[in-house]
Amino acid sequence: MYRPLLLFLTMAWLVPCVINAQEGKRRGGVLGVVKALGTFIDSAAVSGVDRRYIVAPEKPWQVMLRGTASQSHLSFDSHSSMQLFSDFDVPVTIDMEPRLESEKYSTIGLWIGYRGYGYGYSKTIGNNDDTYFTIGATGGRYGLNFKYRKHKTNAPEFKYTLSVDDIKTSEDEVLDMNSPMSLKSYILTGYYLFNGKRFSYAAAYDQSVIQLRSAGSLMLGGAYYRSVVDYASNENADFIGMMGNVGKLSITMGCLGLGYAYNFVPAKGWLVNAMLMPMVSLYNSTTVYRYTTNLQELMDLYLDSGLEDESVFNDMHIEYAGKEKVANKVALNYFARFSVVRNWQHHYLCAYSEYNNFGYRRSGSHNRLTDWYTYVGLGYRF
User: Is the pLDDT of residue 6 over 70?
Assistant: First the structure.
C-alpha cells in the first residue's frame, strides 16, 4: 500500500526538477543538469519569502543523527463475549473491550537532505524488527511528507471483564501473546501556508531554512492515513477468539483540515514551534479480517481432563473466514506538533513531537486510534 504513496511523493518532487534539468542539459551536459537542479532547489527554498524573517543556510546539505520513540494505541467501545466452557454448569464468560496498545519503542538512524528534500531511516538496535522511514519535500509555501513505521509487540495492553454467574471481575493488564502482533502505519501529509512569506514550517521540522523573527500562519492540510494491526497466527488462536474471531484489521482515512502554526524566536538561533490541525475525515473505512478457531473444542477437552492436561492447547489453529469492509461515519480528527530548535553556524539540535488522533464510528460504537512519536536529532550542514 505504501508503494503508490511513495511513487506519488517522488513524482511530486521530481517533475519540476526534471523540467529544470532539461534546461540545464541544453546549457552544458551532465554538469549543466546538476547545476540546474541545484539552482532550482536553492531558489525554491526561499522563493517569495521575506528575507528579514526567513533565510537559507549557506551550506545546502544536511545530515542528522536522530533517536526516535513511538507508540500506537487502538481502542474500541464495542464489546464481544466468549464462553470458556460450553458444558460447564455455571456459565463462565469473558466480556472484552479491546484496547490494543503497543509497547513504547525506540529507534536510531540518519536523515540526509538537501534544501528541504530528504530521506530518513531508523531502526532499533538488536533483534527487534522495528523500522521508521520518512521522505520529505518542503518549500516556501508547500510541503509533502511520507512516514512509514513498523513495530512488533507480544505484550499489548488489554482490558476485559471475567463473569462467573453473577460475579464480575474487571481487569486491565498487559497480555502476553504467544506470537508477536504486527503494527504498521503509513501517513502522507501535505500542507499549504497562507503566510509563507514570513512563516516557515521547514524551519521548525527539517531545518532546511532558518526563522529569524517570530511569525505564524494559517495552514490548509491534507492527510492520508492507514494503520494495519495483524496478529493472525495459529499461536494466537486464543487471543483471536477473545477478539470476536478478528485476527487482523486495517483502518484507512483521508482527511482535510484547516489549522494554525506559530514560530516563536525567543533569541538568536532559537526556535519554538507549535501547530494544531483539526481535520475532517472525508474517507473513512475499516476492514476486518475474520478467522475461525478450535478454541471452544479445546476448552471442553481441557475441562474433560479435569483442568490438568494443558497439552490439548498445542493443537490450536485458525482458518481464514473472509473479510468485511465497513464505511465509517464522518469524524473530526486532529494533528498536533511541537518542536524546539537550536541553530549554530554549521550544526543544529532539534527536538520534535507529533500526536495524531483519529476517531471513527460504526455499528453504534465510537472507536479511536491514537498514534504518537518524538525524536531528538543532532544535525550538521555541509
Answer: no
Distance CA 225, CA 251 (A): 8
Which pTM was predicted? 0.78
Where do we find the cell 542539459? Answer: 25
> Mean pLDDT, the chain, as a whole number?
80
Contact of 187 with 224, CB cutoff 8 Å: yes
Q: Say whether 332 sits in a helix, a strand or coil.
A: strand
Pairing of strands 167-174, 181-193: unpaired
| Cell, residue 324 | 468485511
**94: Cβ contacts below 8 Å, ≥ 6 apart:** 81, 82, 84, 160, 161, 162, 163, 242
- How much is the CA Rg of the chain, to the nearest whole Å? 25
* DSSP string covering 37-99: HHHHHHHHHTTT--TTTEE--S--EEEEEEEEEEEEEEE-S--EEEES-TT-SS-EEEEEEEE
Q: Report yes or no: 317 and 235 within 8 Å, Cβ to Cβ.
A: no
Please, what sign has the CA dihedral across residues 365, 189, 323, 297? negative
Residues 263 and 85: their CA atoms lie apart, in Å, by 60
Q: Which residues pair with 319 in a beta bridge?
A: 292
The Cα 82–Cα 195 span in angstroms is 56
CA dist., res. 60 & res. 42, Å (int):
8
What values do phi and psi take at 13, rounded to 5?
Answer: -80, -40
pLDDT at 7 over 50: no
| Cell numbers given for 290 | 475474520
**pLDDT tens, residue by residue, 274-310:** 999 999 988 888 888 999 988 878 878 887 787 788 8
Q: How far apart are CA 37 and CA 43, in angstroms?
A: 10
Q: How far apart are CA 352 and CA 371, in angstroms?
A: 15
Judged by DSSP in three states, 296 sits in helix
Residue 16 is given by DSSP the state H
